[in-house]
Amino acid sequence: MSSLIYFFKQSIQGFARNLSTTLGSIITIFLSLFIIGVFLVGATVIDNIVKSVESEVSITAYVSDDAEEADITAMENYIKSLEGVSSISFTTKDQALEDFRNMSSNADIVDELGGNPLPASINIELSDPQLVQEVANQIEESDLFKKIADEDDPADSLKYGQRTVERLFSVTNYIRYIGIALIVLLVFIALVFINNTIRLAIMARRKEIAIMRLVGASNGFIRGPFLMEGALHAIIGSALAILVLELLRRLALPYVTSALMWLPINLDLTTYLLVYGLLVVFGLVIGLIGAVLAMRRYLKI
């Protein structure tokens, strides 16, 4: 216990001796961990959004007005037999027009159509959204669907949301790559700052270290204050990052959630606590690695 108190006192003295580099180290760790925290929270939100979009992925197969009822029934039976299909339903032309009327903000548009241009459709719900492309391909290649499809090209008679999910994944992947590159750069800068801070602390205490060697102090006792200093940099930096993230959660997130009510962006407290715990661990790893690298280079014991 007394050794820990000694290590702590020495690390505090190191703070005071090298205030500018210490602040640079702490600020860089804070920025690195803050960005890591933002991306961890963002990745969880994006995962929830993707799952929400995937859960609503379905296929609509539009049917020609001239299609025979027997052919439509046979097509429905074929679709039911496909892997990944959970249920199907049939929407008649009249139902399609009524649905359009209910969704339209201007009911007069429906009255001005001069008839019913909307086709009937088979609506397909999926048990596994990942199979949407496979199911759509099988429907498109079916000779029976080619016979009843609303368009000459069966592909034009199919509507499904896989492209939306793919675009979402494409955008989020670019964001992840940029975020990872930025995090790596900031972590490298943090390691450089910690390395310089520990180097200055070693140089300031070189006479004291020489005396400790003469009196037989253990290597662990000599290294302890520098490891403690690196750990303190990390703890302060991670505490600042957690503080800013918590302020954003309490002050900014309610406004964003209310403005984007249709998106599942509100996370529970457990998720944030997990992120905060990971930030402390990441910070300690960065701080200790920086201290160890500095000691291996500048502390010859």
Structure description:
The protein is α+β, with helices and mostly antiparallel strands. A four-stranded antiparallel β-sheet has the order 2-3-1-4. 27% of the residues are buried. The longest helix is centred in the middle third of the chain and has 43 residues, at 162-204. It is 73% helix and 8% strand. Helix 2 (19-55) runs antiparallel to helix 11 (269-298).
Summarize the helices and strands and which ones pair or pack.
Blueprint: H1 2-17, H2 19-55, E1 58-63, H3 69-80, E2 85-91, H4 93-103, H5 108-111, E3 120-126, H6 132-141, H7 143-148, E4 158-160, H8 162-204, H9 206-214, H10 219-259, H11 269-298
Antiparallel strand pairs: 1-3, 1-4, 2-3
Helix pairs in contact: 1-10, 2-8, 2-10, 2-11, 8-10, 8-11, 10-11
Q: Give the overall average pLDDT.
A: 77
How many distinct helices? 11
Which residue ranges are poorly predicted, with pLDDT under 50 across at least 5 consecutive positions? none
Q: What's the count of strands?
A: 4
Strands in their spatial order, largest beta sheet = 2-3-1-4
The SSE order reads: HHEHEHHEHHEHHHH
| Helix proportion range | over 70%
Largest sheet: 4 strands, antiparallel
Q: What is the terminal-to-terminal distance? A: 24 Å
Shape: elongated
Computed structural class: alpha+beta
Strand content: 5-15%
Over the alpha carbons, how many angstroms does the gyration radius reach?
31 Å
